[in-house]
Design brief:
- The chain is mainly α.
- The protein has two domains: about 60 residues; about 160 residues, Intergrase catalytic core (hpI Integrase, Chain A, Orthogonal Bundle), CATH 1.10.443.10.
- It contains ten helices and four strands; from the N terminus they run αααααββααββααα.
- The strands form two sheets. Strands 1-2 form a two-stranded antiparallel sheet. It has a two-stranded antiparallel ribbon with strand order 3-4.
- Helix 3 crosses helix 7, helix 4 packs antiparallel against helix 6 and helix 8 crosses helix 10.
- The protein is elongated, with a radius of gyration of 24 Å.
- The termini are far apart.
Length: about 270
């Protein structure tokens, strides 16, 4: 294809059509667009006759990558714990609560050791790279996290094992082993997120990061910027979670309190 056609804004529609032609494999289609964006950006920087990037800002097809609005609720976690007990997989519950109280990704959950635990914070270098480097995660020591870690110290461990999470044999979990066991319990408990249009998606272990974020906002009363720094997210993403799960809930509770107060006042007036 001649280079010059990439300077025609009408090519955006052609890129979208190309993406949609592979909608049966949405992640692959989105990756194709991502690669094209990078290629056109490189061509512009190298002076190859490209003035615009017609592939930029095209929405993704794969919904699984857009999960910032998904969190685990207390009811979800309770249902998960009950199903884990029923399936005799109680050790999975430890990982559920540790994820909810630290926001750590799977790889960091299963490799977290007690050497990473400080008096005021949990500090660990993330195994996953972000923008080419490994981020150092620092998680504040909340009362709930401190209590959980104290409980987890008492788990039976094989000699020499210092990981916070252990399996039923007292050995460290592998990432795939924990992830597979977690997903089996989740599937049995049928933990799902329901979209406004009725579309259902299974909730992921990774979605517990959103749960951790709501705790930072609601219980620790951090600002969006403070929570974003801990999560390594943008303040806008944190603000979206605050609007959806924190401020909205507080408004509903406040309305309920006012209604209850008016009802009691009317009831008292009638008695008088």
């Amino acid at each position: 294809m001649p280079v010059g056609v990439w300077n025609d804004s009408r090519m955006t529609a052609k890129v979208v059509a190309w993406r949609n032609s592979r909608k049966d494999t949405p992640r692959t289609a989105d990756i194709g667009v991502t690669v094209l964006v990078a290629l056109l950006k490189w061509a512009r920087l190298m002076g190859r006759g490209i003035a615009i990037n017609v592939a930029a800002d095209i929405p993704q097809l794969y919904k699984g990558a857009q999960r910032e609005e998904i969190v685990w609720t207390e009811d979800d976690m309770q249902a998960f714990a009950e199903k884990a007990i029923e399936l005799e997989r109680e050790h999975i519950i430890d990982g559920l609560w540790l994820a909810a109280l630290t926001g750590l990704r799977r790889a960091d959950l299963v490799t977290l050791t007690f050497d990473h635990i400080g008096e005021f914070a949990v500090t660990k270098t993330a195994l996953k790279k972000s923008k080419g480097r490994r981020r150092r995660a620092t998680i504040p020591m909340t009362p709930a996290l401190e209590a959980l870690l104290a409980e987890l110290r008492g788990r039976q461990r094989a000699e020499g094992v210092d990981t916070v999470l252990v399996n039923s044999f007292g050995r460290p979990w592998s990432g795939d082993g924990f992830g597979g066991s977690f997903n089996r319990v989740r599937d049995e408990a049928d933990i799902k997120h329901v979209e406004e249009d009725g579309t259902e998606r299974m909730k992921h272990l990774h979605d517990l990061r959103g749960t951790f974020c709501t705790m930072l906002l609601a219980e620790c009363e951090l600002t969006d910027r403070e929570a974003a720094d801990i999560m390594a997210w943008s303040p806008d993403r944190v603000a979206h979670i605050r609007k959806t799960y924190v401020d909205g809930s507080r408004v509903v509770v406040a309305i309920g309190a006012r209604i209850a107060g008016r009802s009691r006042a009317k009831h008292g007036a009638k008695q008088r």
